[in-house]
Amino acid sequence: MHTKPLTALPSGAVHHLPTPPEALLRLPDVLALTAFKRATFFDLVARGVAPAPFHIGRGSFWRYGDVLEFLRRDPTELNEALRASREKPKAIRGGPHARNS
Fold first, then answer.
1. Is the pLDDT confidence value at 71 over 60?
2. Which pTM value belongs to this model?
3. Would you give the end-to-end CA distance of the chain in angstroms?
4. The total number of structural domains that make up the chain
5. Which of 21, 43, 44, 66 could form a disulfide with 49 if both were Cys (CB 3.0 to 4.6 A apart)?
6. How many CB atoms lie within 10 A of CB 41?
7. What is the CATH number of the domain that holds 59?
8. Residue 54 · residue 69 · CB < 8 Å
9. Rounded CA gap, 51 and 94, in Å?
10. 21 confidence band (pLDDT: 50, 70, 90)
11. Do residues 55 and 62 lie in contact, with contact meaning Cβ atoms separated by under 8 Å?
12. Is 96 inside any structural domain?
């Protein structure tokens, strides 16, 4: 079976072309497809909800098929992850520089 090599699409091309699932996307295209801000998207990656990038040289890439699979997930799971990402950790009181009064 012959498989095509992975190739990166030029930024913005994903919106105008029929894109094969093995195509590689850069971050601007992933953010455009998901409609997330950069910080929110990377928080979802850190939580294991969104697909993680892989690296070729110094570049970060996502497979188009992985991004589509992420977008097809159950919305309640995504909403729970977004809610958890918005919760701020509680500040730790005390510590070595706390005043003892």
1. yes
2. 0.66
3. 74
4. 1
5. 44
6. 19
7. 1.10.1660
8. no
9. 38
10. confident
11. no
12. no
